[in-house]
Specification:
- Helix content is 43%, strand content 22%.
- By secondary structure, the chain is α/β, with parallel strands linked by helices.
- Strands 7-8-6-5-4-3-2-1-9 form a nine-stranded mixed beta sheet, sandwiched between helices.
- β7 and β8 form a beta hairpin.
- The radius of gyration is 22 Å and the shape is globular.
- The chain binds iron/sulfur cluster.
Length: 406
């Protein structure tokens, strides 16, 4: 399986109220960071990664568009000199409309970036202000159009719903504006309240009221309906793409391909083990200048974690989770698993497969895959929890024991 490469650029012009990704606003530290990153690239070229073919490269953050085209060009040269990439490698870069110099956009294309993802979040200025984004709706449109002028033929756009004060009508306006611009890829995220963020503190102090669950549900369904009608394929719970424009990089995370993450706080996975870097730029730089890799910790995935990952990642996707992999991991035959799910959710057989619970209609079982219906996507967390409660340690071990005896 071809690998993915992620580079975390840990700088932002200012911090958004909801974000818990690691970044600093001390932009004077960009040059020392790049020097450290180049060292990390050299140190990461061990026998495992040296033998991988990378099909994707993703520059995320933080705000990669704070780097100049020259920075990006040098970085890509160092990466291409170090690792082996497929000839048609997907090279994505995130851009914040408030930290994107329009004259730089053609330079990114020339440097080799072939996919630009723009953090629009909303086309309503009052919502952008609440989120403490540093751009307006007009800035986002200008960024999208500059990218088109620079001949980017693969554009992504991130949007957020469930913002306090957002109405269904304002969300529909954001969606309609997005669709008019026709980016090849659109991601819809419900606003989350992460504990380390100012948004969480404001919520705890009672200064912010969360969006009503029913309204958030309606917004999600409105997004699915509008984007599908506009020709976008809903291929993952939060992701939509025009035909042929799924994010290859994100698919690496969902299908358990190996991926290497470089930069502070970046995560890596080699198929068996996960590890992650320190999330502090000062410590990151110091460790690298001492000649070591800046790894904070690592973990081997145990059987239960691998089963959980199979369910959590699989059910997010249109193709669902593989029951063949389920059998390989658990030793429990798919028919038994389906049987248990039928008891848990109730089911009706409609010939092609099972539709669990005629009322809830949440899961389908088709060609060795288990998938969530649109209704099921709305209950993703609950359904995963229900499956995990079936997949408790005793049950899997019990099945394993029985299987070994036969
Ligand atoms: S610009 Fe992006 S990475 Fe930076 S704080 Fe805002 S959401 Fe987080």
């Amino acid at each position: 399986m071809a690998a993915g490469l992620y580079i975390h650029i840990p700088f932002c012009r200012s911090r958004c109220i909801y974000c818990d990704f690691y970044s600093t606003t001390r932009l004077a530290r960009i040059e020392p960071f790049l020097a450290a990153l180049h060292r990390e690239i050299g140190l990461s070229n061990d026998s495992f990664w040296h033998n991988q073919h990378f099909a994707t490269l993703y520059l995320g953050g933080g705000t990669p568009s704070l780097l100049s085209p020259e920075h990006i060009s040098t970085l890509l040269s160092v990466l291409f000199d170090t690792f082996t990439f497929d000839s048609n490698v997907e090279i994505s870069m995130e851009a914040n409309p408030g930290a994107l110099f329009m004259q730089n956009v053609p330079g990114y294309k020339k440097a080799g970036v072939n996919r630009l993802t723009i953090g629009v979040q909303s086309f309503e200025d009052n919502e952008l202000k609440f989120l403490q984004r540093i751009h307006s709706s007009a800035d986002a449109l200008a960024a999208l159009r500059a990218a088109r002028r620079a001949a980017f033929d693969s554009l992504g756009m991130d949007l957020i719903f469930g913002i306090p004060g957002q109405s269904l009508a304002s969300w529909q306006h954001t969606l309609a504006t997005a669709v008019r611009e026709r980016p090849e890829h659109i991601s819809l995220y419900g606003l989350t309240y992460e504990q380390s963020t100012p948004l969480w503190s404001r919520y705890e102090r009672g200064e912010v009221s969360k969006c009503e669950e029913e309204l958030e549900r309606e917004m999600f369904l409105a997004g699915i309906g509008l984007l599908k009608e506009a020709g976008y394929e809903h291929y993952e719970i939060s992701n939509f793409a025009l035909p042929g424009f799924r994010s290859k990089h994100n698919q690496k995370y969902w299908d358990s391909s190996p991926f290497l993450g470089l930069g502070p706080s970046a995560h890596s996975f080699d198929g068996v083990k996960r590890w992650w870097n320190v999330d502090d730029l000062t410590v990151y730089t110091k460790i690298l200048f001492d000649g070591e890799r800046p790894i904070e910790d690592e973990e081997d995935l145990g059987l239960l974690e691998r089963i959980e990952e199979l369910v959590l990642l699989g059910l997010r996707r249109k193709e669902g989770m593989s029951l063949v992999e389920w059998e390989e991991l658990t030793g429990v035959v798919a028919a038994q698993f389906i049987d248990l799910l039928q008891h848990r959710f109730g089911a009706v057989d409609r010939g092609e497969g099972f539709f669990f619970s005629p009322a809830a209609n949440v899961l389908t079982h088709y060609k060795n895959r288990l998938c969530l219906t649109q209704q099921g996507l709305l209950l993703y967390n609950t359904i995963c929890e229900n499956i995990f409660s079936l997949v408790n340690k005793e049950l899997v071990n019990d099945w394993r024991d029985r299987k070994n005896k036969f």
